[in-house]
TrEMBL record, chain A:
Biased composition (Polar residues): 143-154
Native source species: Leptidea sinapis
Keyword hit for Membrane: yes
Name of the protein this chain belongs to: TMEM9 family protein
PANTHER family, per database record: TRANSMEMBRANE PROTEIN 9, TRANSMEMBRANE PROTEIN 9 FAMILY MEMBER
Record key words, sorted: Membrane, Signal, Transmembrane, Transmembrane helix
A Pfam short name: Tmemb_9
Transmembrane segments: 93-118
Localization in the cell: Membrane
Organism ancestry: Eukaryota, Metazoa, Ecdysozoa, Arthropoda, Hexapoda
Stretch list, region Disordered: 133-154
Recorded GO CC terms: lysosomal membrane
Domain of life: Eukaryota
Signal peptide feature range: 1-19
TrEMBL record, chain B:
Listed GO CC annotations: early endosome; endosome membrane; Golgi apparatus; plasma membrane; synaptic vesicle
Pfam family, one: CBS
Chain positions covered by the region annotation Disordered: 22-60
PANTHER family per the UniProt record, alphabetical: CHLORIDE CHANNEL PROTEIN (PTHR45711:SF6)
InterPro entries, per database record: CBS_dom (IPR000644), CBS_dom_sf (IPR046342), Cl-channel_core (IPR014743), ClC (IPR001807)
Protein name: Chloride channel protein
Length: 185, 827
């Protein structure tokens, strides 16, 4: 995942984007002209894609200008067999969404790695203060914000406090689901 | 007091006192001065309200209940005012009052009364200043604003999921090197002049091509196969471990839990921020991994998470669990609305399937919310087809009357498939719950993914995304469709309509492959639904029904082709053109299985006809849905969601079931014989006594009686409130010690000397619902269902005898149905 996405992002930044990706198209599917003209049964179909206004997105507007010579005089036979569809999309939204999704996944994976590998090490050092923290929090449902621990800054402390609270909740959820199997079976 | 003309009427007194919050409320037991306050806040319009309430007291039914407050005539107005102010739950109150603990049920009556008080207070204050007027207006429209925000967010999140999942699904097959964020369809967007028979275009590279091999051939096949499996495993492993690490509540479909929550249960964190994020990301990953699951059910959970999170912006909803459930109902509607592109179907789904309490106001809000969500998703246009779902189809052919027979047959088949699925899935989930298998959640996900990927790849119908498969099956065979399923040797001479034709070899091959796909999907879905990743069930059930539907459709079509002269077809199918639409059969079959699995009827039909964009096919869909529901009900009692609620033992009092036993309230109530009822007296227990009682017993609430000897009921107080109030009083009030008398109610004149008393009137519910001991349980169960009670008190000759809680009722119902009563999940 990581390898791939870094490779991909690299390609983007190297300016590899060259193909023109428009947001609108008219897409027509027709049998190949030969099938119609020779009256043979064939499954060969051709795709015609063009950039024409929606009201021109039909056989007359898109296909005849291209294959008009081949089917000259037999348009009445050829044209009704074409299916045309006008489509639009927003490439920017797609790009932004996919990149955001990738980033979120990577962030989550990184954070997961942090919690699995590094966090136990850090917590071992701060074991004492952590212990104090949890005990205090159990009572603090009754009110009163927790007392800041003097050694750390206030904001940082609040963040760790929140994080501990969240971790405890997740542990509780895990116990409910994975150990005791009381929920979501 | 002469300016208070209706003083003589009890009703008027109580009602008037409602409006006096804000002046005398901060300290509920302030003693004197109540009357003066009351005069000072009397405003013109309220006088009118007073007189009307005096003449028609029943129009304020709830408050009539408080009438007994006037027993102590002097203090009556004051008592009530104090009590209501306690319910108001605004700033100066004890923090936490009105909230609930994890795994508790809410008290609908109490919460709704609280909200009504808050509302009246705001209405009253509106006259005071412009600022209050604005606040009042904000309060009035906050419900609509909240559902608007929920709708917008749901639409956006659904768009993200759709785009992300479709990209990641195609990542299993290849990549678009020039713009990696495109899936195959988007990558080949402007590629000109390719024959459709090869789906690949030059911009899109399959994995073998990326590594320099050719597109076809045995080597390329193996490389593709390997990449498919590896990607599937990576996605599934990521999804499972993210869920395990950050938010275990994000696994599963979530609809059984949402149902339980909407019926008034508290699961802390189930609708939280982390659950939302992980559910969205995990859903994208697990859908992309090619497992046999869908994103529709989890979408309901995601929308509900959004509803819950956004409701905290509006204290009216965030702080009141009963009101919050109105927003959640609307959010559930929005979830289905974006999942199927069916706003009306979403509203009906919320009404029929998930919601418990659904007043008209909520119906309109749900409608609005679903509409907004669908509109937003439509403007994102995730599939580039101008529709909200991948498998939107449009039919225009009429159906023939005789086709009702195969449609009903499809309903019966659907009901059978659904029953097999439910039984097998519940069996497997139960096995997982009680065996060692449950200890290896991530391993299980990986094994299921591995097996699914290995079996699914060789068959093109299982290899493709399930939504695409459904689209293919629903679709009519037109010129642009080059699947083997549409291999009819037609020579296209008459171009105006597709003529009847014999099925080619491709069709028969496709039918064999589809049969295999059906078996595989059925088996894999049984094992998939319930693994610990976000997984829904709508899409697999639709596929399970669409496959047999299409097969039956092709069968009928070929019959009509072979025997055009038969009496069945002669009347209506003789014109020579193709009169049978196999795609319609696929849709009817899909509706039948989905109906059988979830036991939806109305909402299902509406969702399906919104998918087809035509009302013409309502009758076939209705026939199939009904047949399927009947068959399903005959073969197995419960739908999948109810079965999962029962398996998990959620405290869900189903309003569909009837209680048919003859037991009485006295048989169910606690305490049983030879046990004593823990009660609190209104004005003779000390703080120490109360704390000892709280330590020694584990009840969630205590009745308050006049005295231990008389056992006359005064009210009911919750354990949580009692704890909070005592702790709060110890912190904030001077002189409260263990010997302080706790006063809930009663005459205040004769206070004994000693430490100051602790007044707890504001946390006392003076209007608990009571029944007599001879009340049949049928009535009691009905009261619990319809009023949303948390407990009811049982009296005999006017004296308190015991308590029936929702837990007791649920256990009793289970016991009567010969199930294990201890399985109810409850605190």
């Amino acid at each position: 995942m990581l390898r791939l996405s870094s490779l991909l992002i690299l390609t983007v930044f190297l300016g590899y984007v060259s193909a023109s990706y428009e947001d609108k198209r008219c897409k027509c599917v027709c049998p190949s002209p030969a099938t119609v003209l020779n009256n043979t049964v064939g499954s060969d179909r051709k795709l015609y894609i063009g950039n024409v206004p929606p009201n021109m997105c039909n056989c007359d507007g898109l296909i005849l200008p291209r294959v008009g010579d081949l089917v000259k005089g037999r348009e009445q036979e050829f044209c009704p067999r074409c299916e045309c569809k006008y489509e639009n999309r927003n490439t920017t939204i797609i790009k932004v969404v996919v990149i955001i999704v990738l980033w979120v996944i990577m962030l989550l994976v990184a954070y997961m790695g942090f919690l699995i590998c590094l966090d136990p090490l850090i917590n071992k050092r701060a074991k004492a203060s952590y212990q104090e923290h949890t005990n205090e929090d159990d009572e603090s449902t009754l009110g009163g914000p927790s007392q800041p621990i003097s050694s750390r800054g206030n904001v940082l402390n609040r963040v760790t406090h929140q994080q501990d609270k969240w971790k405890r909740q997740v542990r509780e959820q895990r116990r409910n689901i994975y150990d005791r199997h009381t929920m979501l079976n | 007091m002469e300016r208070f003309p209706l003083k003589t009427s009890k009703m008027a007194t109580t009602y008037q006192s409602v409006y006096k919050k804000g002046t005398g409320s901060s300290n509920g037991y302030s003693g004197q001065g109540g009357d003066d306050d009351m005069v000072s806040i009397k405003a013109g319009p309220h006088r009118a309200a007073d007189s009307s309430s005096a003449s028609t007291p029943t129009s304020h039914g709830t408050f009539q209940l408080y009438e007994h407050g006037t027993r102590y005539s002097d203090a009556s107005a004051h008592w009530d005012a104090v009590m209501f102010s306690g319910m108001q739950g605004e700033g100066d109150d004890i923090p936490g009052i009105g909230q609930y603990d994890d795994f508790h049920t809410i008290d609908w009556q109490r919460d709704i009364a609280r909200d009504r008080m808050r509302h009246r207070y705001i209405v009253k204050k509106r006259q005071d200043s412009i600022w209050d007027l604005i606040k009042g207006a904000h309060d009035a429209w906050s419900g609509w604003v909240c559902v608007l925000l929920v709708g917008v967010c749901t639409g956006v999140v659904a768009g993200v999921i759709d785009i992300g999942a479709s990209w990641m699904t195609d990542l299993k097959f290849g990549i678009c090197p020039q713009a990696f964020w495109f899936n195959r369809e988007q990558c080949c967007w402007s590629n000109d002049e390719v024959t459709v028979d090869h789906d690949n275009c030059s911009q899109w590279l399959t994995w073998p091509q990326v590594f320099g091999e050719s597109r076809d051939g045995a080597g390329a096949y193996i490389v593709s196969y390997l990449f498919y499996i590896v990607w599937a495993l990576i996605f599934a492993a990521l999804s499972a471990s993210l869920v395990r690490m950050f938010a275990p509540y994000a696994c599963g479909s979530g609809i059984p839990e949402i149902k339980t929550i909407l019926s008034g249960f508290i699961i802390r964190g189930y609708l939280g921020k982390w659950t939302l994020i992980i559910k969205v990301v995990g859903l994208i990953l697990s859908v992309s991994s090619g497992l046999s699951l869908g994103k529709e059910g989890p979408m309901v959970h995601i929308a509900s998470c959004l509803g819950n999170i956004l409701s905290y912006l509006f204290p009216k909803y965030g702080r009141n669990e009963a009101k919050k459930r109105e927003i959640l109902s609307a959010a559930a509607a929005a979830g289905v609305s974006v999942a199927f592109g069916a706003p009306i179907g979403g509203v009906l789904f919320s009404l029929e399937e998930v919601s418990y309490y659904f007043p008209l106001k909520t119906l309109w809000r749900s409608f609005f919310c679903a509409l907004i969500a669908a509109f937003i998703l439509r403007s994102i246009n995730p599939f580039g087809n101008e529709h909200l779902v991948l498998f939107y189809v449009e039919y225009n052919k009429p159906w023939k009357f005789f086709e009702l027979i195969p449609f009903i047959a499809l309903g019966i088949i659907g009901g059978c498939i659904a029953t097999i699925f439910i039984k097998a899935n519940i069996y497997w989930c139960r096995y997982r719950k009680y065996s060692k298998l449950g200890q290896y959640p991530v391993t299980e996900v990986l094994v299921v993914t591995l097996i699914t990927a290995i079996i699914a790849y060789p068959n093109p119908y299982t290899r493709m995304n399930t939504s695409q498969l459904i689209y293919l099956l629903f679709n009519q065979c037109g010129i642009s469709n080059n699947d083997p399923l549409c291999d009819y040797p037609r020579n296209y001479t008459d171009v105006n309509s597709i003529e009847k034709a014999a099925a080619g070899d491709g069709v028969y091959t496709a039918m064999w492959l589809l049969t295999l796909a059906l078996i595989l999907k059925l088996v894999m879905t049984v094992f998939t639904f319930g693994i610990k990743v976000p997984c829904g069930l709508f899409i697999p059930s639709l596929a399970l029904g669409a496959i047999p539907g299409r097969i039956v459709g092709i069968g009928v079509e070929q019959l009509a082709y072979r025997y055009p002269k038969s009496w069945l077809f002669s009347g209506e199918c003789s014109a020579g053109d193709d009169c049978i639409t196999p795609g319609l059969y696929a849709m009817v079959g899909a509706a039948a299985v989905l109906g059988g699995v979830t036991r939806m009827t109305v909402s299902l039909v509406v969702i399906m006809f919104e998918l087809t964009g035509g009302v013409r096919y309502i009758v076939p869909l209705m026939a199939a849905a009904m047949a399927s529901k009947w068959v399903g009900d005959a073969l197995g009692r419960q739908g999948i969601y109810d079965a999962h609620i029962a398996l998990n033992g959620y405290p869900f009092l189903d309003s569909k079931d009837e209680f048919q036993h003859t037991s009485l309230a006295a048989d169910v109530m606690q305490p049983k014989r030879n046990e004593t009822l823990s009660v609190i007296t209104q004005d003779s227990m000390t703080v120490d006594d109360v704390e000892t009682l709280l330590k020694e017993t584990e009840h969630n609430g205590y009745p308050v009686v006049v005295s231990k000897e008389s056992q006359y009921l005064v009210g009911f107080v919750l354990r949580r409130d009692l704890n909070l109030a005592i702790a709060n009083a110890r912190r904030t009030m001077d002189g409260i010690c263990g010997q302080s008398i706790v006063i809930f109610a009663g005459p205040t004149q004769s206070l004994p000397p000693g430490p100051p008393p602790l007044p707890l009137t504001r946390i006392l519910d003076l209007a608990p619902i009571t029944v007599t001991d001879q009340t049949p349980m049928e009535t009691v169960v009905d009261m619990f269902r319809k009023l949303g009670l948390r407990q009811t008190l049982v009296t005999h000759n006017g004296r308190l005898l015991g308590v029936i809680t929702k837990k007791d009722v649920l256990r009793h119902v289970k016991q009567m149905d010969n199930e294990d009563p201890s399985s109810v999940l409850f605190n």
